[in-house]
Amino acid sequence: MSKKATLYEDVDGTTFEVGLPLTSNVDLEGITKELGVPTYVDMGYFPMKCAAVSIWAALNASQLHERYPEAFEKRVSKKPIPVLLFGGGAVKMHCEHANGTGVLSRAIKDTDFIVPKKHGLDFYRLLLSMDKAFGTRYKSFSTKSDRLFNALRHGDRYRVRTIEGSTDEGVPVVGVMDVLCDHINLRHNIEIKDAFKKHRENLYTIGLEYLILTKVQFITDFPKEKVERLKDYEQEFRILSYPYYKGDSVVLGMEEKDVKDVCAIFLGHSIGEGKEEIDPKKMMRVLRKDQKFALTATLNLENLAEKPDVLKRWLRGTDASTVTDRIKTLLQRLPAVDKKWDRPWWNTAVETPIIE
Questions:
Q1: What string of pLDDT tens digits covers the 356 residues of the chain?
Q2: Which has the closest alpha carbon to 265: 283, 284, 286?
Q3: Partner of 315 for a Cys bridge, out of 24, 243, 319, 349, CB 3.0 to 4.6 A?
Q4: Which of 331, 330, 328 is CA-nearest to residue 278?
Q5: 300, 240 in Cβ contact below 8 A?
Q6: Where are the domains of the chain?
Q7: pTM of this structure
Q8: Which spans in 181-313 are helix H?
């Protein structure tokens, strides 16, 4: 008799189950080759495998009802859905050092997606039928609270439950996936609409420049009286050099996972305007319109450039110098901010999704 695993039991008693073992009936090698995914991307890693299948399905959305009629009764979308990765999954697409046993590789629970708002509902519905077409490894489902969450966001954001991986015993591990639309609203708001036009060129991600911006947007304050706690966890490197803030708090920048991702990007990509280079002009176009965001971004980047010893936790030889030199070169091209704030200049009330 086949085994079943309970993924979730809803408040109304509805139970979401899946048969074991999990199944997959996709030609992953064929999909990654068709998409042009770099060979260094570790497709044995569960989240990246799911990401590749989801991207391929979205780009073939207009034909899925013909190829998989048992899963899709009607056309998912009249046109391909240009879904993009951001977060740790996007870093792995661009950076060899962030994959496998690379020096800057780190675990991610799932992948973070953003789609044009006009395609948001189509992609959401696609995710809910993935398992019927491609196997139970790609199962997603929506709980009662998820559906309420989605309804209240009016198409700006969707939430689904997905299988993030499995235990050594083969039991599925379920997590929450946020699908954002048009913009990434974190500590600062980042409009990325123009990135959808270059989805293949940018390896189905928001692109290096927007990817850096989503990482260096993180900022918060922290009581001075509790700074010793940061030292206990070796997190004092996050304290940003900004003496103008109110006297009882310090300002904290990126978390360690984001520092590693930013290092991976700068280690693998030079500053310039060519393909797979970090283009200062693209970042300038965003930051010169928003002084508050520009301040946060430059503080985080300066913090890395000024603390090479922190980078040497992961980087060896000249790699730390390569990263700091490239950050300094970029900083010379970014806008200087003269205005000084002694209170939060970032979004404090925003509902920030967990970005891996």
A1: 568 999 999 999 999 999 999 999 999 999 999 999 999 999 999 999 999 999 999 999 999 999 999 999 999 999 999 999 999 999 999 999 999 998 899 999 888 999 999 999 999 999 999 999 999 999 999 999 999 999 999 999 999 999 998 888 889 999 999 999 999 999 999 999 999 999 999 999 999 999 999 999 999 999 999 999 999 999 999 999 999 999 899 999 999 999 999 999 999 999 999 999 999 999 999 999 999 999 999 999 999 999 999 999 999 889 999 999 999 999 999 999 999 999 999 999 875 544 44
A2: 283
A3: 319
A4: 330
A5: yes
A6: 3-81+117-181, 207-331
A7: 0.94
A8: 208-216, 227-232, 256-268, 280-287, 291-305, 308-311
Q: What whole-number distance in Å separates Cα of residue 57 and Cα of residue 277?
A: 28
The distance in angstroms from the start CA to the end CA of the chain is 37
264 in Cβ contact with 98 (< 8 Å): yes
How big is the CA angle at 322 (ends 318 and 327), to the nearest 5 degrees?
Answer: 150
